[in-house]
User: Fold these one by one.
Assistant:
Number 1:
Amino acid sequence: MYAADGYARASGKFGAALVIGGPGVFNAVGAVASARSDGTPLLLISGETATAEQGRGSFQDATVLGIDDLRPFDALTEYSHIVPTPAALPQYLRVAFHAMLQVRRSPVHVAIPRDVQTAEVGDPLWNPRHSLEEPRILDVEALARFATESLAPRTRVAILAGGGALDAADDLRAFAEAFGVPVATTFRAKGVLPEDHPLSLGMFGYAGNPPAEDCLTSADLEVLLVLGSSLNQRDTLSWSARLQPRNGIAQVNAGSRMLGVNFPVRYRIVGDVRTALRALSNVQALGESTSARRAWADEYLQRPRFLNAEHMVSDAVPIDPARIVAELRKALPRDAALLIDSGAHRAFAGHYFPVYQANRLFSATGLGPMGWAIAASIGVSVALPGTRVAVITGDGCMLQNGLEIQTAARHGLDVMYVVLNNSALGNVWLRARTLGDGPRKLTELPTHDWAAIARSLGLRGVRVEQPSELATAFGEFAERGGPTLVDVRCDRAATTPIAPWAQALSHPDIFAE
């Protein structure tokens, strides 16, 4: 399911997985929940006991008359049903498919009994490819009101681009360049505007970059245009009360339920980002203030991009994670895809790894299950053939889903797993160590040789203990490709680049004030 999740994100289509009823379905629950949280379209198809055997104590009866493996998906999917007859199968698949691909994309589940699987169903008279085309919608009146009342008269305007903007990268770039608007992104949208573009502020929110944090929370910001973000906790610097532009926030989102629900918004605009940007490009008055807007934006755009930049060149041993991420970025091609797992390494990778292309950064940002990236990389690699794929993960994540590296080896995929091996559950350890020896020891792990384990599973396994060895290890993968694991012994006490986030957590949020 995690692999299908990765495929869906990288391909722009949907992912599918086949599992047995009962145990297979219950093993998939966490992955379905993560997909639901992030709005990933997944089709889960499970087998079930033959209809004539249901409710009779048959082996692995997971139907409503047995253990009922549909019920857990009531809250986790948009659709979860068992197909009653062969004749009903095409319609059940059609309904599931459209539920999966609605405006807020979602996982769905279809259970198919054994006798239905083997029956003749005829021609379904249905082409699912046509359903993949997203409808382009826009509340023209709401957008025009925002443009007239707030956007056109203002000079100090900035954009926060979220995941909903990923399919509008070209339009976002054209709009920003035409009107001199600086662009910050959420974690999920990194790269929707290349992070070395002159108008890129970098990432805002958790582990964000100083130019983005400073610009979007500045007292002189007049208008913030939010494109395709739900304005959740991490996208708003923990609902920061400092995120209050003088003339308010305009939020564009294709899902009306997302508008203003998580953060106060003055202008709520239902619409997909691409259509909204094309409409705003026709606001001629914006062009009259382009030079002044760019002059104001330059004050922030020219500020240093990274916190603790000296850590990126540190020769400390154990190795500083910032140095690992910086060396990885230098070694990989511009169009490489990066998957980031859950843990302290998420902050290091998000902050220190610039992304230069839309849909080249993947992370399960909603729930953050450990080990997601290890398996999801398989789907990403299949969806992006010829692309170097790297995974930044931790030794704790490897203990969750680490054996999935064998799948990458079996299929000869161009994936490199970079294990930040600090013998701890790093993110939790940083807090637990302040609470005494008991909590600290509960978050420490044995030091496993993941490079040796990788070699036993058919990957190229490399262990790195010195900073000077990083460039060679990463460069070999960039040149040769092939399934690779690099076990990097790193410092678990290294400073994570989240100072603004930590500061925001200590202040009342915008709703409290």
Number 2:
Amino acid sequence: MSELNAEVKEFFDGYERANTDFEPQRIATFYADVFMFGAPQGVQSVKKEDFVRVLPRRKEFFKSVGLVSSKVESLEASKLDSKYVLARVTWRRLALVMKPFVIRCGTPDCDWGHKMHDMGEDQLP
């Protein structure tokens, strides 16, 4: 693993732990005071203080749809210039639901089509 990939992996390992432990103030340390957020609807700037304020609702939403865990599955970093790095991160998310359903985010590059099934506790990672 390159030095750059190792540094970026360390960053995302810490981010993953902060989210697993759900520590909003620690999660906030991984964000600039203003950062860009991209979604299928477009990109917008977000103030860190506003983001931290909605973290409890975000956690409740994920819990309501059955999300149990999020883990970094793969990561690749590319240096853009002396100040910026592009990180391509794939997350593995485990959700427990009672009925299978399909998630679609509405864009061709994000058409997941994952079926999510009810799993017993003995199947949890």
